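Worked Example 4.2. Consider the chain below.
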Amino acid sequence: MDHPSRASDLDQIYKFVPIEVLAKADGNISMIDSMVNDIKEAIKMKIDPIPVDGGRGGTYSFRNSKEKIVAIVKPVDEVAYAPNNPNGYVGKKLGQFDQDRSVRVGECGFREVAAYLLDHDGFANVPPTTLVKITHPKFNINVDGASLTDPLKKKVTKVASLQQYVHHDYDASDCGTSNFPIDAVHRIGILDIRIFNTDRHGGNLLVRKLNDPARPNKVELIPIDHGLCLPETLEDPYLEWIYWPQASVPFSMEELEYIEQLDPVRECKMLRSKLPMVRKVCLRMLYLSTVFLKEAAASGLVLSQIGKMMTRNGEGNPSELELVCMEARKWVERMKSSTADIGMEEVEPDYYPPLKSALWNILFRAACVCGGQNQHLEGQGDLEDGDLSVYSVFQPLDTSLSNFFMSLKKMALGDEETTNCGTKSDSEDDCRTNPFWEDESDGQEKPGRVIFVKLADMNDKEWELFMKKFKELLYPVLAKLKSII
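Applying the procedure from the previous section yields the following structure tokens:
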């Protein structure tokens, strides 16, 4: 039984408003609001979240007042290698690259939300997902190398992804795939290609049986865990569905119509508006992969062929998609050397609209735990509240997220402020000019992580020329593959 003073302190901790939505989709707003209200009510009743076992990052199952799980929450500072990771996978600052050099520490949560926002009308069945500022004493804090678990520690407020919990029977790794619906596999594959998902395996495909006596083996697939989509470089993605028989079946007319109406310009605008912290290079990846999908599907390729074009052959050689991009880059470099004015002026593409200061004010005032006085955010310097007006007008995406993290300066170890240090921006424009990115710790190239193509080091004019040449080079490659069928 709690000591009276301790119980009183706990009452105060659970009394404050614990959760605020930072990003909403146009659809399923009522579902997200319902989840948030259920969580608020449960927290007031002192129904704590349950840490999820397994995985490298900190994940929590939040419950409603009936103690039923309603949402999965992943704080951005508890992912693998982040300062407050509860499982010992630490050592990186927020905003630095993870071990694979394609996704930065603390940015997986934004990608989870992006996948949901891009899943128009629930086409691939991604569960409702949003970005929240959420407070709870059960969240993990690492202080001097140890987790601080005392529930009476001061308020712990973090930025996190929040996704609806989906009741399911098992995941795709626990069963054979023969009874998976063709259209479900196609729709998930289409999403994975659009967002260049680098990590699609059976464990992040949930399977739910449908109670249909007429079709006793009918199941539904629910894709989750999209934190490794929209990488900053063309990677070697793992797409397990490539080898499933459903992926060799031609697209239906409905699926082809869906692909045809995809508009990469409109999608970049939407994502930039709702998630302005997503980096510019990630939007370029979205644009490139959407164009690739549209052209490949229009050429008559099936899903497995498109996925294999994105995938390396296992011997470290570039994929067919990378080869096309490499040729396009070479052509741009030749154009640069022969045309003096190319590359002299930076003009932001018209599909990146101005940022709304209201959203930025919310984001800048959000808080997350950085993990004690010895853990720091990666940034360029301090921002005062008066500087927020700068972001009421357009700012380049390549600095937006580092500024976002850097400005979350009032951390939640009580009312104290952590120190923001570091003057070097870890932005994508910092890429080295050689074909590979080097390991920042020892200057050596990472074995097995060769980067053949970079998208971040092109200015806007070069990017425009690159995409034009990319399409030209892609057509004969697709025609050759089609002729083999």
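Residues 369 and 411 are 5 Å apart (CA to CA). Residues 460-484 form the longest helix (25 residues). Compare this with Example 4.1 before moving on.
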